[in-house]
Write a structure and sequence with these properties.
Elements (H helix, E strand, L loop, with lengths): L9 H10 L3 E3 L2 E2 L13 E8 L4 E6 L5 E2 L5 H9 L9 H12 L3 H10 L3 H11 L19 E2 L1 H13 L3 H12 L15 H4 L4 E8 L27 E9 L5 E9 L5 H13 L7 E2 L2 E4 L7 E3 L8 E4 L6 E3 L1 E10 L2 E9 L4 E4 L23
Antiparallel strand pairs: 1-11, 2-10, 3-4, 3-9, 5-6, 7-8, 8-9, 11-14, 12-13, 15-16, 16-17
Helix pairs in contact: 2-5, 3-4, 3-7
């Protein structure tokens, strides 16, 4: 019996075939032997530091400053905790700091930026940690904490301070919140990219984004402000950053800062950054098994089961790459000109999307096993 998915034109078929180039990922250590892949048009600053050997395994433009976006929230939190015992923090302060770290809450960051001195926060932390590439926001934008200049190398220094020099209570508070990073930020952005997409737990992440229309999760109504660039740091192009630690004992510190061409959709930037992160040599990290595919369609929902009446777990950024663990039959869907009853299981989200929305011809995805009895079926 021929496939029940058909195409209106040969051109559409060829386009789909071109897009269907699965990137298989074998489970196991994320060691060397892979070439770092910076997508065309993307500007990247990269640093990967192995705490076990005390050496960098990756460095690319590591000292180039980028606008930090929400990565500066690490400095905001550390400054606030510098002379305040964690044990005596008021409950509202503990919750505000926690949601700023876990869910990248902007209101919390703005609160501390106002109450703790604005750019003075950055200047204090530069002196305390010896940050050589970091600078406060430009004088023309004093209230824009996300315009702080920060490099991948300085980000490694920040994490090393948290892990190796900060008081135990500060270490635990910061890292516990970063390990509990939520799939979505409080502004409605999906923050499961980069480190969170590339590597299994244990991991801790602090992500950053700026200059994109909100995409994914629950809220697509906000727009991050773009402004003209100023000397020293690009404030115009879309910025997407992934930082954190990976592996048992926080073995590796990873910092990847990226700028994307004007007009780049969030889903493409998300996929490009995740692809770049997967190519890195990260000692102690484990890559999950599965194959990566592109998706299409606006507001693609991940379902708890292979049916459209099951619970919606999240909404994906438009056109984002997803890791497929297995596939099996479920509810038959028709989206003209396609009809398909196969669904893909996405382990990163713990749910399913119809294969109709995976950019690959045919009902079943190539080289993806059928789900067996258990939590996936």
């Amino acid at each position: 019996m021929s496939s029940i998915r058909t195409h209106l034109a040969v051109a559409a078929t060829l386009a789909a075939i071109t897009l269907c180039v699965p990137d298989p990922v074998a489970a196991g250590a994320a060691g060397g032997g892979r070439a770092v892949t910076v997508p065309p048009g993307v500007t990247a600053g990269i640093a990967v530091y192995d705490r076990q050997t005390g050496t960098f395994t990756e460095q690319l433009h590591a000292h180039t400053p980028f606008r930090s976006a929400s990565v500066v929230k690490l400095l905001i939190a550390l400054d606030h905790l510098w002379d305040r015992p964690v044990a005596t923090l008021p409950p509202e302060d503990r919750e505000r700091l926690g949601i700023m770290l876990r869910s990248s809450d902007d209101d919390a960051a703005s609160h501390y930026w106002t109450t703790d001195g604005g750019s003075a926060i950055v200047r204090r932390m530069i002196t305390r940690l010896g940050l050589g590439d970091t600078a406060p926001p430009p004088a023309a934008h004093p209230g824009y904490w996300g315009y702080t200049a920060l490099s991948a190398a300085d980000t490694v220094t920040i994490y090393r301070h948290v892990l190796e020099a900060a008081p135990a209570a500060v270490h635990a508070f910061v890292m516990d919140n970063l390990r509990a990073a939520t799939p979505c930020g409080t502004d409605g952005f999906d923050q499961s990219f980069g480190i969170a997409a590339a590597f299994d737990r244990p991991r801790a992440v602090k992500q950053g984004w700026s200059g994109f229309t909100s995409d994914g999760c629950a809220d697509d109504s906000r727009l991050s402000v773009r402004r003209a660039g100023t000397a020293g740091v690009d404030l115009r192009r879309g910025a997407l950053h992934t930082t954190g630690t990976v592996g048992a004992g926080d073995r590796s510190i990873v910092a990847v800062f990226t700028l994307h061409p004007d007009g780049t959709p969030y889903g493409k930037a998300y996929s490009d950054l995740s692809r770049l992160t997967r190519s890195l040599n990260v000692p102690g990290a484990t890559r999950s098994s599965g194959s990566w595919f592109g998706t299409w369609g606006p507001a693609l929902q991940v379902r708890a089961a292979a049916t459209t009446d099951s619970a919606v777990l999240t909404t994906l950024p438009d056109g984002v790459d997803v890791r497929v663990g297995c596939q099996h039959r479920g509810e038959k869907l028709t989206v003209p000109p396609y009809t398909n009853d196969w669904w893909s299981y996405l382990p990163a989200y713990g749910g399913y999307v119809s294969n109709i929305y995976v950019t690959c011809p045919g009902n079943r995805l190539p080289d993806v096993p059928e789900c067996t009895d258990g939590p996936h079926a």
